[in-house]
Specification:
alpha+beta
Length: 106
């Protein structure tokens, strides 16, 4: 299964690191740029965020980045690969992440 995933990544031309999933539902998530068909996108309230890292830990795509020591740097989500699944918003203990309709305010 790993060889198939490696081949897909080579074909996609992506140099972004990916997490591998093994088993019957295995796929390479980061190989697909989904920004064009996402219905909702995460918007982070930077002022309220305490940089706990829970959203980044649970993101199945590993596309949320933050500097836990430097609060002046924003938490970022790579919207090129974000599927809009809402897991980050669901696990945020402070409710700092809102899922807004694509093209909506945020």
């Amino acid at each position: 299964m790993s060889r198939l995933q490696d081949r897909v990544m080579q074909q996609s031309g992506s140099s972004k690191p990916v997490r591998y999933l093994y088993g019957p539902v295995a796929t390479v998530f980061a190989a697909t740029q989904t920004g064009t068909w996402r219905i909702h996108r995460p918007v982070i309230n930077q002022a309220a965020c305490n940089r706990c890292g829970k959203c980044a830990r649970f993101c199945p795509l590993d596309i949320i980045t933050m500097d836990r020591k430097d609060r002046s740097r924003d938490v970022t989500v790579d919207l090129t690969y974000c599927k809009g699944c809402g897991i980050c918003a669901a696990v945020c203990p402070l409710g700092c992440i809102a899922m807004v309709p694509e093209g909506g305010e945020g």
